[in-house]
Amino acid sequence: MARPREFDINDAIDGAMGIFWRQGFKATNLPDLLEAMGLTRGSFYKAFGDKENAYLRSLLRYDETIVTETIRALESCESNIASDCLKEMFRSSSDGNIGCFICNAMVEVAPDNQEVARLTKSMANRLKQAVLNILVKSNPSFPNTLQHELADIVLHLYFGFQALGKAGSNEADWENRLKIILAV
């Protein structure tokens, strides 16, 4: 009879997500990962198999929590002014300069890993659709192609905001930049 798991899988994945998000995939070694996850080597290998699988599970967890929460917040905005709804995406994180896990994964891992590329593209598309929905709600008379282009620009602005935040230079007035872009 197999021994029952003695740890909460979501807590372990949250620990992995945190360290991968801060340090990246390549810079995270197994001892760091085990410590962040609160697991022994045996429990880690039994539950996750390897570091890459733990990373994939972390990306999925990020999608289930952070991305889904962001989309929910965008969808629940009652303002008809797009910048009022979208400005929350451009608030500095209280977690310090860790940037965006999607951005980090796109740059570091996706070029060499098709599954990570697929997951990050899917998350980015979900975020873009939420932005597009706000743009359509706030400016229903705008041509469809313009709304799609603006959604793409806002998403890229968001990823740039996150990347600059990770680099520690995020002091620009992003809310005002968003208003300028959406004034088109």
UniProtKB/TrEMBL annotation:
<feature type="domain" description="HTH tetR-type">
    <location>
        <begin position="6"/>
        <end position="66"/>
    </location>
</feature>
<dbReference type="InterPro" id="IPR036271">
    <property type="entry name" value="Tet_transcr_reg_TetR-rel_C_sf"/>
</dbReference>
<feature type="DNA-binding region" description="H-T-H motif">
    <location>
        <begin position="29"/>
        <end position="48"/>
    </location>
</feature>
<protein>
    <submittedName>
        <fullName>TetR family transcriptional regulator</fullName>
    </submittedName>
</protein>
<dbReference type="GO" id="GO:0003677">
    <property type="term" value="F:DNA binding"/>
</dbReference>
<keyword id="KW-0805">Transcription regulation</keyword>
<dbReference type="Pfam" id="PF00440">
    <property type="entry name" value="TetR_N"/>
</dbReference>
<dbReference type="InterPro" id="IPR009057">
    <property type="entry name" value="Homeodomain-like_sf"/>
</dbReference>
<keyword id="KW-0804">Transcription</keyword>
<keyword id="KW-0238">DNA-binding</keyword>
<dbReference type="InterPro" id="IPR001647">
    <property type="entry name" value="HTH_TetR"/>
</dbReference>
